[in-house]
Write a structure and sequence with these properties.
The chain is mainly α. The protein has one domain. 78% of the residues lie in helices and 2% in strands. The protein is elongated. About 17% of the residues have low confidence.
């Protein structure tokens, strides 16, 4: 037996090494596969959380827009007051033609203003909700990762740690209160759009409508295609004016002593413009000092002849500042590894700032994708307006002419041919259709909400701030 082991010693050792190596490879590959499966599962869970959070925030965005629609409808109705003009028809019969002309301009302005206002209101709320949702989700994810890491690093709770846990709970309550106040303050910034922004937009729309209706008479026969071409020419002119104003504001902001990003077409309507002055020369020094370096080592001023007597003194100051910087960095690194919980909680206590959210919003509104999305939505909304005009006008025409040719009228809308005076009540009623309070009835709002371009734009904004 002993001779057998001596004779096959090398073979047995090699076989043992081979079997051991195979088992080690098996265990390592199994560990890697389990790690990969856990990572994939975590990614799927994270993706599902992101998707559910995104969907919930889009629904809250729709509800927020619906809550603003009554105010929007009231603002448009007061700015372009057709009821007062109707009342003036009975009071001033001598100026009846002038009042009818003004009523025609007012009704067209109400339609165009409703299209732009609903689209801009929805896009502004959607941008704000996605930015806020992305920032809040990112903060919650960091807090959950920090708490899980602390539970793995720290030991079981001792008597001295009860106070720190109580502080963390109190801090979490303070953060929730701060987040609620920040959300209210952030969404309340929409008051600029509902006041000064809409006033600027309505002035442009009224000026453009007056120019296009200057040659239109109340007795002119207008088909549905004529009304559509009139609406589209007004919309194109408004877009050109907005584009010129954004270019002019960008040129004015880029004057010496200030710097701004190129302004978007609708940014000055949706948000108040703030000009950023150039940072002072000491800001770079402050940043470098904050990062741990000392600019006094490199800042040499004065004449070389005056520096020579103080050379030894400056060298000693250099050495002392370098030693202090080195000790400070060592202390921070040691604190990072000795007290990870306190450092992590300090990082988590960085609160969001309203100015930061507003800057993010302004950056999104300045994007060309945002302007292109708004233009696409206004085109679609104008098409929806033409369809509603066709439905109302066909019904009025059928009621007037009888039911004998009703099928032909509903099949071919081009048969509708009425004087411009007959189009005025149809145009006047569109405000209450486009700004309907209930989103289940407001087909325009639902078509905007379900638009694929809007959904893709919202996903990009949300993902940008979640993964930032």
């Amino acid at each position: 037996m002993a001779t057998f082991f001596k004779k096959h010693k090398r073979k047995m050792v090699g076989t043992g090494i081979l079997i051991g190596g195979c088992y080690a490879c098996y265990r390592y590959s199994k560990y890697k596969l389990e790690q990969h499966a856990d990572q994939k599962l975590q990614e799927m869970v994270e993706m599902s959380r992101k998707t559910s959070n995104f969907s919930a925030n889009q629904e809250s965005c729709l509800q927020t827009v619906v809550s603003f629609l009554p105010n929007l409808q009231t603002i448009i109705a007061r700015t372009f007051d057709s009821q007062q003009l109707r009342a003036n028809l009975d009071e001033n019969p001598r100026k009846k033609k002038e009042i009818w002309d003004e009523l025609m301009i007012t009704c067209v302005c109400r339609c165009v203003a409703s299209v732009y206002s609903v689209v801009l209101l929805y896009m502004l709320v959607r941008v704000q909700v996605n930015i806020l949702a992305g920032e809040m989700y990112k903060r919650r994810s960091r807090s959950s990762h920090a708490s899980s890491a602390d539970s793995l690093v720290t030991s079981p709770v001792e008597a001295g740690e009860v106070e720190s846990i109580t502080d963390e709970m109190a801090h979490s309550r303070e953060e929730r209160v701060h987040d609620q106040q920040l959300r209210k303050s952030y969404l309340s910034e929409m008051k600029h759009f509902l006041t000064d922004g809409l006033k600027t937009l309505f002035d442009i729309i009224e000026k453009t409508v007056r120019q296009h209706l200057n040659t239109v008479s109340l007795k002119d026969k207008m088909t549905l295609s004529n009304v559509e071409s009139l609406m589209r020419s007004i919309k194109n002119e408004v877009d050109m004016i907005l584009d010129d104003q954004s270019s002019l504001s960008s040129a004015e902001d880029n004057r010496p002593g200030s710097y701004t990003q190129p302004s978007g077409k609708f940014t000055h309507i949706l948000m108040r413009q703030t000009t950023k002055t150039q940072p002072p020369a000491t800001s770079k020094a402050a940043l470098e000092i904050e990062s741990g370096s000392d600019l006094s080592i490199d800042n040499k001023s004065g004449d070389s002849a005056n520096e020579a007597p103080n050379c030894s003194r400056k060298t000693s100051r250099k050495q002392s500042s370098m030693v202090q910087s080195y000790l400070f960095l060592r202390q921070m690194s040691l604190s990072k590894y000795l007290f990870p919980k306190s450092m992590q909680s300090q990082r988590n206590r960085r609160k969001l700032n309203l100015s930061t959210l507003l800057n993010h919003t302004r950056e999104i509104l300045n994007l060309t994708d945002f302007s292109a999305t708004v233009i696409e939505l206004t085109e679609n909304s104008l098409s929806y307006l033409i369809r509603t005009l066709a439905e109302h006008s066909v019904v009025d025409q059928v009621q007037k002419d009888g039911n004998e040719n009703s099928a032909n009228f509903f099949d071919d809308n081009s048969n509708v041919n009425m004087p411009m005076a007959k189009w005025i009540p149809v145009l006047d009623a569109q405000l209450y259709t486009l700004c309907q309070y209930d989103h289940h009835i407001n087909c325009l709002l639902m078509s905007i909400h379900l638009n694929k371009t809007v959904k893709l734009f919202s996903e990009n904004v949300y993902e940008a701030f979640v993964s930032d």
